[in-house]
Amino acid sequence: MQKILVIKTGAAGDVVRTTSLLNVLKGDITWIVDPKNQFIFPDQYNGLRLITDIETASIELKDEQFDLVLSLEEDENCARLASAIAARKLVGVHLGYDGLSYTDQPGGWFDMSLLSRRGKETANALKRTNPYSFQHWLFRMIGEEFKNEPYIIYRNPAVKRVQGLVGVETRAGNTWPDKAWDGYDQLIRLIEQNGYRVRTFSQKENIRDYFDEIASCSYIISGDSLPMHVALAYKIPCIAIFNCTPPGEIYDYGLLTKMKSPLLDKDLYSKKYNPEVVNSISVEEVIEAFNRVSLPK
Question: What's the pTM?
């Protein structure tokens, strides 16, 4: 039986979408993940072993040999671990003589990243024109073809979907401030005027409590962020607003309506807050997209 090591620690939404690999990875799987993201995974999934600390991993795994190490974090500590593990095959990010680098197999994905061998301008140009989903590139790294395999994450069977309940995530993280949108308050009023209940999400100590809140909703509206991915995992129709990240790499599973900013191309991956971008999608556009769904009340 094959032994496989996956190094993907965060962010939470990126971990969620990477779980699609669990559909095709066969063997004993060990996954290095950030402690706060360990509860993303189902309990006792096919013997999956989670390790939540890089230092612990370097000690626990030093005498093990893996058939495959899949290194997906653009992070020096993670790359150092990937380079130190005994493996018949390493795919992804590693630590070379000149710092972080990546193997040839996942070149299509990492050529569009901050690590790109082709330079920042080319990387961003590739991002803008990339027609393929993250899962397409992810599966290619291991010689597989993506065939609509779903995310595999924690799900509480006791939580039932509430008809007519719309979940709205109004917050945006600090990394990409332009993922914010100024229309949420007005949008919520319009949704409620149309006879729906609205739940706005808040910070939870345990990520599973957050997932449970999403699972209870019949529709989700957010930016390109974690609730969008959880909605896709739970087969909940959703709208996501893309102000500064490319919508093409998000696979929609037939559930996602993508609202793309007309200013996205010039603000791609900008880490500076731009009010013009944040207000570039109108409330009218979003409510029209929502109304087209004909969600039961």
Answer: 0.95
